[in-house]
Amino acid sequence: MNSKTARLRFAPSPNGYLHLGHAYSALVNKHIADELNGELILRMENIDTIRCTTEFENAIVEDLSWLECDFQKPFRRQSEHFSDYRKAFNELEKLGLVYPAFLTRGEVKEIIAEAERKGKNWPRDPDGVPLYPTDERSLSPVKAKKMIAEGVPYSWRLNMDLARRFLNKELFWYEFKGHETGKIIARPELWGDVIIARKDIPTSYHLSVVVDDALQKISHVVRGADLFQATSVHRLLQEILGYKPPLYYHHPLVLGRDGHKLSKSSKDTSLRSLREHGLSLQDILAILPEI
Known about the structure:
Largest sheet: 3 strands, parallel
Shape: globular
Number of strands: 10
Enzyme class: ligase
Helix content: 25-40%
GO molecular function, one term: glutamate-tRNA ligase activity
Keywords: Aminoacyl-tRNA synthetase, ATP-binding, Ligase, Metal-binding, Nucleotide-binding, Protein biosynthesis, Zinc
Number of helices: 10
Low-confidence stretches: none
Family: Belongs to the class-I aminoacyl-tRNA synthetase family.
Radius of gyration: 20 Å
InterPro entries: aa-tRNA-synth_I_CS, Glu/Gln-tRNA-synth, Glu/Gln-tRNA-synth_Ib_cat-dom, GluQ/Sye, Rossmann-like_a/b/a_fold
Mean pLDDT: 93
Strand content: 15-25%
Order of helices and strands: EHEHEHEHHEHEEEHEHEHH
CATH class of the largest domain: Alpha Beta
Number of domains: 2
């Protein structure tokens, strides 16, 4: 690829303050964009309009400026582009690849527990989460519409079996850096019937990230190794929707003292807090893995 066409993105969710893991990812993106003489853009992945706030968004922009990570402006907010995701969802719906799913978490647990009592090993996705039961794939459209009209909570899921048969081709992507460099075979079926959209939000992470990367002409996706396996789902959606796939690099994660990846939900020390305690940019760089 001509380096002049390289286009990368850093895409945090403004539902908390950035931690060291985010700082590392932003800096790796900047480093590779500079290597390729390419563009680096910022995207706010804020489809969760309840947890994502302007306060956190402003804090992210401020932290990135402090890290000397310069991004093109203006940046994209997913919450302002639901129509783009709706259009992509409609394509999947027209192809008959999605279905409304009504099971609650409690009901799913009961189904799995009953199956395991009978000696069945329930399949799990690459993150270790039990796959969603597939019985609702055959739910009649009449009954589904009735349940929706009655206000029964639901989400839209991808019928993975139909999607794979529809595509009927080998899926793969290319990693351009790291120990996994080369052609990687995608196995989206390992994820089962993933959520594609919700009742009140016409998208999910999987769908919106694929649409955004295509619309923003992202040539190189640089993100954490925790999303390596999820790339299989993204490649499937890209092929179905006719999007050109980017190259990928899944960089190592910054781990906490307990050996687990840093997390906002675990209230790991924020970059802002470290700055307030007097750490300089050079101090932060010394803490982080070598880029």
